[in-house]
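Sample 1 of the test manifest.
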Amino acid sequence: MNDQGKAYWSATLGLLGKILAIWFICSFGAGILFADALNGIKLGGYPLGFWFAHQGSIYIFIALIFYYAKAMGELDRKFDVHED
Amino acid sequence: MDLQTTTYLVVGASFALYIGIAIWARAGSTSEFYAAGGQVHPVMNGMATAADWMSAASFISMAGLIANMGYGGGLFLMGWTGGYVLLAMLLAPYLRKFGKFTVPQFIGDRFYSKSASTVAVICLLTASLTYIIGQMTGVGVAFSRFLNVSSDTGIYIGQAIVFLYAVFGGMKGITYTQVAQYIVLICAYIIPAVFISLQLTGNPLPQLGLGSTMSGSDMALLARLDQVVTELGFGKYTTTTAGSTLNMFVYTMSLMIGTAGLPHVIMRFFTVPKVADARSSAGWALVFIALLYTTAPAVAAMAKYNLHATVNTAVAKGGDLYAAENSIVAEQRPDWMKRWEKTGLLKFTDKNGDGRIQYYNDATKNPDAKAKAEAAGWKGNELTVNADIIVLANPEIALLPNWVIALVAAGGLAAALSTAAGLLMAISSAVSHDLVKGVFAPNISEKNELLAGKIAMAVAIVISGWLGLNPPGFAAGTVALAFGIAASSLFPVIMMGIFSKKMNKEGAIAGMLAGLFITLFYVFAHKGIFFIKGTEFLGLIGGPNPFFGITPEAFGAIGACVNFAVAFIVDKMTKEPPEHIQHMVENVRIPRGAKAVDGAH
């Protein structure tokens, strides 16, 4: 792999790492490990930890995938490896 | 029009639509048959993936399970959606770039080994077949309930319909049919939820209604539900966890990894035109899945509230839940309860002979609830409700019109049929493409390969139908196994194939076998060898859930760790993969040069 390819791959891995960290913090963190602590805070009628487990993490997952698709598109063009 | 006629009309119309679409989208070539010619728009593909993914389990069972489990039920919600993040980022775009029809073909090429591909076929067949049996059983139950035929006849009808459009339409037919099925099932799920959310909270959006205050009161719906269920001795709805925090953590992880590793879901990303489309298509799939998955917790909590409110008038109007006059008189119970009693899924027995229905937790550890129940002269819980009827009975509980009930029937069938078709496609391509063409007859013509695929599909329909007729104690255990296998065998090996250039065939094969074996071992110890009753061997491993209290359903994540560890160790001890394979991996990692999928070996 040439230097350009290496740089593209490490940029990709960096992006994946960031997104997976958010993925983990929202679902396993806020939804499970810290749910009890967060339940003290109310979001409307929802206890916050419960909201993350039953609603919030799903919305965040969707946002993460679209952000990923957009950010990867930009990386592809920056390193000139995009399709067409 | 009575309920029966309305149901026939709505279900009949939906079937006519599916078959019409299948005829319109007939597959001509192998590329159209396996990958819909690689020309499906990402939004369409997202919709089809959603229908493919959401089975009878999501549609019928999940909300009921959540209603029973409360907060802990969130593991299904997070587990079955969070996997799409993994799929979108770790697998889908790279497999699309690789440009072949099937998952075993990727594994076979990447690990330069027919054996690796054959092991992958075995994992795929086990996962898909076990999963499809549950769907067939679901089809049988749904048909028998709504069309008034026996469950067996229901399965025969289901087999015939799936056969028609899966065998003739191939992936192209299935994809477009699934788009229609998605629309039917999502309407069927959301319409009753909107009605009920309006009734209870005045907010038409169930996602917001669940977090709102009750109509005519300033108390939040969830707070009132918590209050009612704890007073009746049940666990608090918004905090009761699933087993332990560790078990919930591992269970959620297993479902996520399993989702990303299920071959019929992965295959969907071969049908889009470009690598960039594979990325966004996973996002669209999750949008369409989330419509149902964010509604489900509202359906669950509201149905639980409505059920309590039906049998105890103090739930809605306030007052003492234990006062004698607040439990409803059995003779005056609503018609829908009588209808479901006939199915045996809802049971009422008057234990204290007072002619009223008392619904509470008689095994409670809450001393308050226990004392109150004894003081009120309650002699045990008198109502049992099977979790599976919550979604189906939901519109009846809320007294919604007949066409809504008929629509829910059509939705349940759409969910079961679309998933069954997707699984059949995965089985068919694994057998015809990876076994017949890949191993036994490499020179087979395209026409004969298509024929082999169709025969494999027909055989799979017959086997799954037969097992659906004689379920060997299946259901929840089956689904757990399907996810466990996908999570512990396929996901790690595909991921390592992309993210490690040095992973070799010895490591991959050893990893797959180790992950598969340890997961099967743990599941079979609890559920019996191949689910045959009486062959459990819990004594051998030291009682139920011996591994840190982790349940067999949650074990897939542990199996995946074993897979990674074994693969890594074996890889270090054997020689690295040839130069051209390492170049291939580098090439898979960049989108440029992606071409239409083809089947060439």
